[in-house]
Amino acid sequence: MMLVCTDPAVDPREFDRVEPVDPWVDEMDGRDVRLYGSELEPPDCARTVRVRDKHAIVTDGPFAETKEQIAGFDVLECADLDEAIEVARRHPMARLGLLEVRPFWPFE
């Protein structure tokens, strides 16, 4: 899984200077590396759900206090972590935000 994160401290005009994501998507789809991906609504649309003492506690906003905001995700199928890092390195958002690459928990 690759989480695409932005930094709210970055001037929004900087995003205009980053190349579009579509060519990256087309290349990774063509390589059969990207299985699925999507942008996410902004963090103010998020709800965090916790259950404590059998009661659901629902709060507005993202689940953690972080500077970065999760803007989207891509499900990748790579041979190994090195390939996943290479794929993430080429994503345009790596220049202004960050991409977290993490394997799925193995099925047993």
Commentary on this structure:
Residues 58-107 form the YCII-related domain. Pfam families: YCII. It comes from Trebonia kvetii. This is Transcription initiation protein. Belongs to the YciI family. The protein is of the alpha+beta class and 108 residues long. It has one domain (9-101): Dimeric alpha+beta barrel (Alpha-Beta Plaits), CATH 3.30.70.1060. It is 17% helix and 32% strand. The protein has 2 helices and 6 strands; from the N terminus they run βαββββαβ. The chain has helices at 22-30, 81-89; strands spanning 2-6, 34-39, 47-52, 55-60, 69-76, 98-101. It has a 4-stranded antiparallel sheet with strand order 2-5-1-6, with helices on one face. It has a two-stranded antiparallel sheet with strand order 3-4. The longest helix has 9 residues, at 22-30. The protein starts with a strand and ends in a 7-residue tail after the last strand. The model has no long low-confidence stretch (mean pLDDT 89).
Main sheet properties: 4 strands, antiparallel
Percent of residues in helices: 10-25%
Strand content: 25-35%
The topology string of helices and strands comes to EHEEEEHE
Beta-strand segment tally: 6
The end-to-end distance, rounded to whole angstroms, is: 18 Å
CATH H level, superfamily name:
Dimeric alpha+beta barrel
Which secondary-structure class do the elements indicate?
alpha+beta
Total of domains: 1
Identify low-pLDDT runs. Answer: none
Mean pLDDT: 89
What CATH calls the topology is Alpha-Beta Plaits
Shape: globular
CATH architecture: 2-Layer Sandwich
- The CATH C-level class name: Alpha Beta
What Rg, in angstroms, do the CA atoms define?
A: 16 Å
Strand order of the largest sheet: 2-5-1-6
| Helix count, DSSP H or I runs of 4 or more residues | 2
Domain YCII-related: 58-107
InterPro entries: Dimeric_a/b-barrel (IPR011008), YCII (IPR005545)
Family: Belongs to the YciI family.
Pfam families: YCII
